[in-house]
Design goal:
This protein is mainly alpha-helical. Helices cover 65% and strands 0% of the residues.
């Protein structure tokens, strides 16, 4: 997953900081981040023992707090990786505010963030029992899913040519085909297919996804190591 070292790219930390004086840009930056993190937070709080309804309330109310209560002004790249910053903030919110916030029933005076909890609950059973491991596992799967989606777009735009459905099987959950099987399905030899798979640059896309929420090259390497551990757990 390492890839070649390059100039450190603009990150979502950068976009967050740039958006602090622009309410519309701030909302876009937060929506982008929260789309990536709501399920890890949900699985995290479920594994901490909250029932389904309490977990829904906690995540929706926390995300409302993040979007509406100037959370972004406290975001600081010096605090490290955004993943850790968000989880720590969620922990503090659960301790300090959730008991009070949970008294407000969903559909009351709180703004509800539309999230597909039914799908999330079906996925929850396959995650580790440890809350932090469940959070990290879903975060890692989300990174992989976004990288696969970007790869699909590259094939659809014609930047990459070849059998995307065969390539995709190497980068999603489940047992991938053998190189020989994939090569036959693609009309290639095994060596040719391996080269084709390498040129798909999936590792580069994963690295770019990881880089969005960190502030240094060292943090990218640490996040990738965490991602690999989470996927193997």
């Amino acid at each position: 997953m390492g890839g070649e070292a390059r100039e450190f790219p603009p990150t979502r930390w950068t976009s967050i900081l740039a958006a602090q004086s622009d309410p519309a840009a701030r909302r876009r930056a937060l929506d982008d981040l929260l789309a990536s993190y709501w399920k890890p937070l949900y699985f995290y709080v479920r594994r901490k023992g909250r029932n389904v309804e309490d977990a829904k309330d906690a995540v929706q109310e926390f995300l409302t707090h993040v979007v509406e209560k100037d959370f972004i002004s406290h975001a600081d790249p010096a605090r490290g990786r955004f993943r850790g910053f968000l989880k720590t903030s969620f922990d503090h919110w659960l301790v300090n505010r959730y008991e009070e916030a949970s008294a407000k029933k969903r559909g009351g005076d709180a703004h509800i963030v539309p999230l597909d909890f039914e799908v999330a609950e079906r996925e929850c059973a396959a995650l580790p029992a440890d809350p932090l491991a469940a959070f990290d596992r879903e975060w890692a799967l989300g990174v992989m899913e976004r990288a696969v989606a970007r790869l699909r777009e590259e094939f659809e735009r014609g930047e990459r040519r070849g059998p995307f459905d065969v390539v995709r099987r190497f980068f999603v959950a489940g047992e991938p085909p053998s190189y020989e099987e994939a090569a036959r399905a693609s009309g290639m030899g095994a060596v040719q297919f391996k080269a084709f798979l390498h040129r798909a640059r999936f590792r580069v896309l994963v690295r770019e996804e990881v880089s969005h929420t960190v502030s240094s090259e060292a943090d990218i390497e640490a996040e990738i190591a965490d991602l690999v551990r989470a996927l193997r757990a």
